[in-house]
């Protein structure tokens, strides 16, 4: 059941506690160990939604092998974050592997700045989800950047990373522009703060700053990229 954000003073607890579903990215659960252990740690946060974050190609190798064993997982919404580091340059093979992930994976999140041939990703179909980037990347932050990708990937969805917005536009107006342009494509949010360029637990300041944006995103999972507190 989706719960609208109320008008109490915004804190991480009130903002996150007002929403269902919230899930966890395994990006901050790597210390749990193997992929099965990371999935169990994510399920302890939420059995509804999770993102299995294979940010390097070696991590993806292990995740892909594990997912093809068809493990029983509790999540109603399961996404995989595609690798963005230690890539081997064989983009067609990576795209084929992403497209071949089991059907239990509902969404496959990609970074636009590492897509050398965006059109090649069309074979991933409607499971492909493009994430907006922060200011450290060469592209993928604004409406024009993402519109060009969606023009060649008409089935793709959108992942709004609210922390990435703060690095580009602290006023958060860019988030509203992206939702105006791509709201019908929205599949999930990445929710955290950015501290020193790293994802960190949501701060009181960001809870207040993000709330108008989050009010527009109550119908999709919010994936935490850092602990809730």
UniProtKB/TrEMBL annotation:
InterPro entries according to UniProt: Xyl_isomerase-like_sf (IPR036237)
Domain of life: Bacteria
Cited SUPFAM superfamilies: Xylose isomerase-like
Name under which the protein is recorded: Sugar phosphate isomerase/epimerase
């Amino acid at each position: 059941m989706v719960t609208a954000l109320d008008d109490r003073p915004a804190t991480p607890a009130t903002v996150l506690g007002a929403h269902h579903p919230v899930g966890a990215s395994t990006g901050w659960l790597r210390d749990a160990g193997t992929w099965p252990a990371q999935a169990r740690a994510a399920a302890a946060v939420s059995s509804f939604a999770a993102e299995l974050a294979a940010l390097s190609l070696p991590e993806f190798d292990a995740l892909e092998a594990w997912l093809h064993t068809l493990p029983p997982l509790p999540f109603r919404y399961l996404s995989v974050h595609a690798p963005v580091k230690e890539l081997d340059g064989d983009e067609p093979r990576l795209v084929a592997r992403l497209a071949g992930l089991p059907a239990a994976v509902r969404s496959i999140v990609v970074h636009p700045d590492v897509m050398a041939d965006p059109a090649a990703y069309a074979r991933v179909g409607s499971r492909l989800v493009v994430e907006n980037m922060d200011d450290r990347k060469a592209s993928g932050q604004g409406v024009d950047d993402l519109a060009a990708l969606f023009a060649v990937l008409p089935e793709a969805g959108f992942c709004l990373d609210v922390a990435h917005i703060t690095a580009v536009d602290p006023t958060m107006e860019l988030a509203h522009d992206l939702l105006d342009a791509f709201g019908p494509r929205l599949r999930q949010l990445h929710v955290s703060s950015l501290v020193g360029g790293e994802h960190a637990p949501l701060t009181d300041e960001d809870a207040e700053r993000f709330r108008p944006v989050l009010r527009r995103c109550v119908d999709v999972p919010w994936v935490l990229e850092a602990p809730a507190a």
